[in-house]
Structure formats: C-alpha cells, structure tokens
Q: What sequence folds into this?
C-alpha cells in the first residue's frame, strides 16, 4: 500500500522533513542536521539528498547557519529545483493514497550515547554520483513512510507547541515522553498563580516571563517574574545553569549565543523548563526552584514569543 509522504510548505517552498547525508551515511531530520552543524560535526557545505525512491535530488537545509535566537521556524529541507527530483520520487510527486494516521511526536529525555559521534570514515562509495558531487550511500535508508518525530532539545518541542497554537489544535496534538502520551495543551503549563504546594511532583514544561543574568562562575541565573502561589504568599521560582554543565553540553555554542544576546538586550526573557517545581520542607522561608541538570530540558527565548502565548491556559490539568 502506498502511503503519501507528509510535506509542508513554507515561504512558497516544499518543506521536506528528512534527507540523507552521504558524509555520515545517515538519514536524518533537519533538526538533527541543525544540531550537528552547531556542534561542529557537520559542515556548512554538507550534502543532503532526497529520501525518495530512485531520487538523488540535492536538498538545502534551510536555516542551518542561522543562530537559534533568530529562528522563527524550525529548520527544514527544501529542493533547489523541483525538476531535479526523479519521476519516481514520491516526496514531491505524491500520488495521493490512504491518509496515514498521525503519530505522536516523541520527546526523548536522554540522548543516545553516540548521538554526537564524529562522522565515520568513508571507504569505497556504494555508488558514484553522476554530477561529481558527494556519492550517495546505499544503506537501505530511502523511502518516505512517515516516522514519528523524535526531539531531544526542549526548544524543538516548544517550536512545535507554537505551531500547534497557530493551528489551534493543542488539545489534539500529542507527544510521547517516557512511554506515556499526553497532549501539548496538558504538557505546557504557565507558572503564574499556580498553587505550587500541590504541584511539586508534577513534571511538565513550565513556562513564564523571567530575567536572566550571568554569574561570575560562568553560568547563568534566571528568576521568573510571574510567581507561583503558596498560602498567602507569591513565590518566584529560580533556575541556575552551572558553568560546568554548560561546558559539557555538546551544543553549548547555540545555548550561550542565545543567552548572551538576551543579557545584552536587558535580560528580559521567557523561560520554558521541563522539570518539577521543588520546595524545601524545613526552610524558614519558602522558595521554589527548578533543577535543570540536562541543558536539553530548558529553552530561553526573547519576550516577542509572548504574542504567541496570549490566552494560553493557566489552569493545571
């Protein structure tokens, strides 16, 4: 049975979700290509080939070199010219067919140990490209049956959240984390005026307006400007990003560029953190922290994102 591939259109281009990169002998998403580039494991001149059957069309990874703080859409692959695709390529010559059931996105709490492996050494190519460019590898990775989208950085999930808000389908769009499936509407929660004592065991993507500053140790300290509620008081949660964690982070170049830019612009920001609120049990004065030891689990954005977050539910589900 033929399954029509999922394609999108942005700025008049056909957006393609996956491609093959011969340099790594890997089928990968545009999100992964973006991460590999910013981890210095993929060059700006990398070759990307269409995954369609019998197709060797060369693709461009849009937004590959754009710093994350300037992104307004997720990275994606697109064709240089549609006529470059083979007649048998179902990516751009979709024949229609039975609509495939939407699969939940998958947010992985931990990356595989070899996720940022260096490119393998390439021995004799499996095929030779007719145009003199990088050869296509034939490791059985072609075909366009839709696969679930796997994300490791929270920023990718936040971007999907914003897209679903624009599409007004947060209650239907689903995401799987640790084998459990929920909706984007239930996963994303605003800290503002939530009763924190009832939520200390609730892991969610907590978000809210905040301020950020650099620490003298080389890390960052964030304070939410909108508070949780606790009895008759308001508690503004904090997050500390340690310098040692930042230096050990594979895509620290992306993270530091974004955070330093926000500080240079005054420090006002919007924070998303996949975490549980934490409160001490015996402290004289109550306070709330989010512990983010895995830097994939935090996304810090400029305040312009608030325009897209208006009217997001503040009610814990």
A:
């Amino acid at each position: 049975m033929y399954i029509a591939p999922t394609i999108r259109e942005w700025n008049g281009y056909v957006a393609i979700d996956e491609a093959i990169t011969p340099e790594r002998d890997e089928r990968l998403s545009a999100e992964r290509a973006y991460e590999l580039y910013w981890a210095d494991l993929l060059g700006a001149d990398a070759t990307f080939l269409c995954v369609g059957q019998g197709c060797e069309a060369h693709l461009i990874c849009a937004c590959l070199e754009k710093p994350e703080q300037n992104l307004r859409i997720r990275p994606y692959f697109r064709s240089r010219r549609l006529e470059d695709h083979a007649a048998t390529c179902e990516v751009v010559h979709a024949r229609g067919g039975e609509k495939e059931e939407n699969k939940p996105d998958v947010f992985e709490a931990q990356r595989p140990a070899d996720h940022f492996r260096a490119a393998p050494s390439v021995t004799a190519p499996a095929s030779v490209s007719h145009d003199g460019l990088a050869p296509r590898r034939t490791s059985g990775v072609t075909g366009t049956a839709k696969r679930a989208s796997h994300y490791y950085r929270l920023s990718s999930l936040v971007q999907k959240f914003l897209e679903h808000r624009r599409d007004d389908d947060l209650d239907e769009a689903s995401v799987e984390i640790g084998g459990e499936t929920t909706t984007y509407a239930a996963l994303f929660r605003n800290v503002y005026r939530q009763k924190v004592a009832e939520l200390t065991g609730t892991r969610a993507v907590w978000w809210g307006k905040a301020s950020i500053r650099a620490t003298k140790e080389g890390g960052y300290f964030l304070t939410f400007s909108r508070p949780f509620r606790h009895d008759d008081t308001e508690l503004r949660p904090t997050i500390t990003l340690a310098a040692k964690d930042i230096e050990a982070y594979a895509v620290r170049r992306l993270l530091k560029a974004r955070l330093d830019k926000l500080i240079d612009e005054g420090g006002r920001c919007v924070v998303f953190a996949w975490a549980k609120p934490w409160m001490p049990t015996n402290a004289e004065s109550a306070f709330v922290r989010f512990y983010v030891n895995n830097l994939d689990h935090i996304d810090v954005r400029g305040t312009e994102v608030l325009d897209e977050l208006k009217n997001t539910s503040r009610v814990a589900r």
Residues 1-97 form one domain. The longest strand covers residues 204-214. The first helix runs from residue 30 to 38.
